[in-house]
Specification:
Layout (H helix, E strand, L loop, with lengths): L2 H10 L26 H10 L7
Length: 55
């Protein structure tokens, strides 16, 4: 993961953008509270997941 390493350039050249004070930023995706917590089930999740029928 190069996230921290590459962000250093933004700070050096003052091109970084942190909204407001950078606190209370929501992370994740909708439905992440029901996403499996362990590695094996995370890997198997796409095979098990079936979208709801939208009629």
């Amino acid at each position: 993961n190069y996230g921290l390493t590459l962000s250093i350039w933004d700070y050096l050249f003052k091109t970084n953008y942190v909204p407001e004070d950078g606190r209370d930023i929501e992370l994740g995706f909708s439905g992440d509270e029901t996403f499996p917590k362990d590695f094996v089930n995370q890997e198997l999740y796409p095979l098990k997941f079936k979208p709801k029928n939208e009629d």
